[in-house]
């Protein structure tokens, strides 16, 4: 939704927060990760997690949900100012995804993104690639999700 | 569900297959990745993906779904033979997750796991760590998902 040239390097941006209810944790788990500690409070308490814990893929998918909403807000603001809006390109992937601590029912998780570097793509004129770090912390500011990723963005036409 | 000592290094194991219907692609996207090319056939066809495309997080979450079912089958077989069954531990994370090609509506994706190395954990007696590679291919045997991951497993008590 933004152009390569709009990317701010080294600025941590808040993407939003999400409270993981027991119902949402169980609904995701039933569909995609039906392990007992994601489905049942008692099983969660007896597990290493110490409570009903969200699937790691659930915490990562919520990042995507918040990112999309964040990019839509940026696009709306740009449109309101009469600026051109670009669609973001596909993601080539992720590196070093870590879940250092569990997300338990009732936790409110805040997600952040920080672009760390960018460059135009010699192989694809009009496009660039941005590298960045995504983090998520719980209400005690403890890290629960970390990964490095990259995304293709269009260059602003001059 | 299996012990460190049961891990077979260098053997590619089929975890199962999953057909991504348009309905399932849109349902995941509505909840977690509401971008137009994941929600609408026309928008997908006009995108770089060339069709209604599954969210990358959807293709990764389906891996988890198939892995859990696969591990439950192993556990059932072990129980049927009167063997002890261990719960698997948490995953420390993932490395180098890549989505080299899109997954489009109607594609049937087959997932595979191959353990590449393992070692007992000096820091956690009774536990070990297994490193492995997960791949997923479509019905034309084209790679659509790749990542390296690790998992903690209990050691068999001697």
Describe what this molecule looks like in 3D.
2 copies of one chain form a homodimer. The mean pLDDT of chain A is 89. Chain A is built from 4 helices and 5 strands; from the N terminus they run βααααββββ. The first copy, chain A, has a single domain (4-154), classed as Thiol Ester Dehydrase, Chain A, CATH 3.10.129.10. In chain A, strands 1-3-4-5-2 form a 5-stranded antiparallel beta sheet, covered by helices on one side. The two termini of chain A are 17 Å apart. Chain A has 158 residues and is α+β, with helices and mostly antiparallel strands. The radius of gyration of chain A is 18 Å and the shape is elongated. Chain A binds chain B through residues 31-35, 47-49, 55-57, 60-62, 64-65, 68, 87, 89-99, 102, and chain B through 31-35, 47-49, 55-57, 60-62, 64-65, 68, 87, 89-99, 102.
Q: At CATH's second level, what is the architecture of chain A?
A: Roll
The portion of residues assigned to helices of chain A is 25-40%
> At the third CATH level, what is the topology name of chain A?
Thiol Ester Dehydrase, Chain A
Order of helices and strands of chain A: EHHHHEEEE
Structural class of chain A: alpha+beta
Q: Specify the CATH homologous superfamily of chain A.
A: Hotdog Thioesterase
If helices are DSSP runs of H or I spanning 4 or more residues, what is the number of helices of chain A?
A: 4
The biggest sheet of chain A, with number of strands, parallel, antiparallel or mixed sense and barrel status, is:
5 strands, antiparallel
Q: What is the residue-averaged pLDDT of chain A?
A: 89
Question: Most extensive interface: pair and counts?
Answer: A-B, 30 and 30 residues
Are there runs of chain A of 5+ residues with pLDDT below 50, and where?
Answer: none
Count of strand segments of chain A: 5
Query: Over all CA atoms, what is the radius of gyration of chain A?
Result: 18 Å
Q: Which band does the percent of strand residues of chain A land in?
A: 25-35%
Query: What is the highest CATH level, the class of chain A?
Result: Alpha Beta
- Tell me, briefly, the overall form of chain A: elongated
Count up the domains of chain A.
Answer: 1
Measured between the Cα atoms of the first and last residue of chain A, the distance is 17 Å
Strand order of the largest sheet of chain A: 1-3-4-5-2
Oligomeric state of the chains in view: homodimer
């Amino acid at each position: 939704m933004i152009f390569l040239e709009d990317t701010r390097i080294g600025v941590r941006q808040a993407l939003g927060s999400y409270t993981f209810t027991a119902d949402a944790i169980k609904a995701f788990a039933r569909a995609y990760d039906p392990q007992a500690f994601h489905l049942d409070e008692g099983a969660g308490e007896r597990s290493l997690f110490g409570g009903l814990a969200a699937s790691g893929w659930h915490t990562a998918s919520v990042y995507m949900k918040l990112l999309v909403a964040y990019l839509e807000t940026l696009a709306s603001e740009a449109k309101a100012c009469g600026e051109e809006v670009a669609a973001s390109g596909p993601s080539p992937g992720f590196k070093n995804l870590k879940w250092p601590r569990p997300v338990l029912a009732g936790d409110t998780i805040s997600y952040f993104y920080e672009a760390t570097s960018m460059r135009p793509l010699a192989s694809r004129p009009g496009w660039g690639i941005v590298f960045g770090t995504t983090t998520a912390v719980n209400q005690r500011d403890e890290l629960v999700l970390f990964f490095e990723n990259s995304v293709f963005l269009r260059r602003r036409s001059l």
